[in-house]
Amino acid sequence: MGNNLNDLESQGYTADILESIKKHIIIGNVFRVIGVVLFTIIGIALLALQGWNNFTTSTILSDVNYLYNAVYDPCTGSSTTTTPSPSTQFFDPSMSVDKPIIYLYPEEEKDVHVSLELKNSEMLYMWPNANQAENNIFKWDVIADKNGKIQDENGNEYSYLFWEATGYADGNFEKGFCVKGSETGEFLREKLSEIGLTPEEYNEFIVYWLPKMQNNEYNIIRFEGLDANDEYNSNFVLNVTDENGIEADSMLRVMMVWEASDSYKEIEPQEFETFERNGFTVVEWGGTEIK
Questions:
Q1: DSSP state for residue 93 in the 8-state scheme
Q2: Burial 120-155, CB ≥16 within 10 A → b, else e
Q3: Band of the pLDDT at 265, cuts 50, 70, 90?
Q4: What is the pLDDT of residues 153-162, one digit of tens each?
Q5: Residue 205 and residue 202: Cα distance in Å, rounded?
Q6: Cα dihedral 125, 127, 130, 131 sign
Q7: Per-chain mean pLDDT for the chain
Q8: CB of 281 within 8 A of CB of 145?
Q9: How far apart are CA 12 and CA 197, in angstroms?
Q10: 59 φ, ψ to 5°?
């Protein structure tokens, strides 16, 4: 600061102006320190609320920096707002549908058209990217065979279609299951098999979800999507047809809704019928954690 003021003095600025500039610099630095301290405290508080697993150091620092810049810019003496990148925005996990994946099993290799309409949600991620996306309707045009292999128009191969979206937060656990964290893996294998997933499908499911669940004291779990008229199917509308516009013969959607619990809770067990695969079959699984 001293060198800069000397430069200004050499340019003919009066003592009064230099003193005013000095005061503004000091005030700006004070506001900067206060801002950093204040929003660091806010960041730590948010970290405590959301849980360590949902944040990284870089994420916290990015969000603190965003909040600080949104309130005060000491260089201009005014407020500024900068939109953070999606990877650093705070995100409420209770408002998401995590890793739904769609398996396609036609009776023979054929062109398949998949349409997913999000009624009250926004798409976050998908792989491969949909061929068409308009008005929250996403459409994939692929080739699938009876073993579940999927190819896009360029010949790239996939095991399933992946998507993830915001907007699911139904934490109603009138029916379901309360399971010890240490027993969650075996529970999922048993129930998902009972629902109708194959070993390949339910093992993919368990590998994704178990690390998030097994260290909890208990997990409260229910399965959505099994009823074609339930909230999940109403808000995330999935249609699958072949090249002639004929719908798939059978479809199973399994959306696990769960939350961690420190204590055991009595819940009326959820009952369901085992899914039967007939003809062209579509299977989807996903989950959401309520926090």
A1: G
A2: ebebeebeeebeeeeeeebebebbbbeebebebeee
A3: very high
A4: 999 999 999 9
A5: 5
A6: positive
A7: 81
A8: no
A9: 81
A10: -65, -45
DSSP 22-55: HHHHHHHHHHHHHHHHHHHHHHHHHHHHH-GGG-
pLDDT at 200 over 50: yes
Backbone angles phi, psi at 131, to 5 degrees: -70, -30
Strands 157-158 and 161-166, by their bridges, are unpaired
Structure-token match 């005014």, residue found: 78
241 vs 5, more confident: 241
Higher pLDDT, 16 or 224: 224
Angle at 42 between CA 40 and CA 47, to 5 degrees: 95
Pairwise CA distance, residues 138 & 59, whole Å: 30
Are 56 and 87 within 8 A, CB to CB?
A: no
Task: Please tell me the distance from the alpha carbon of residue 133 to that of residue 96, in angstroms, as a whole number.
Answer: 19
Length of the chain (residues):
291
CA distance 146 to 137: 26
Specify the amino acid at residue 84. P
- Quick one: pLDDT at residue 24? 57
Q: What is the DSSP string of 194-214?
A: HHT--HHHHHHHHHHHHHHHT
Mean pLDDT of the region 131-151: 98
- What is the tens place of the pLDDT at every residue in 83-127? 333 322 333 434 467 889 999 999 999 999 999 999 999 999 999
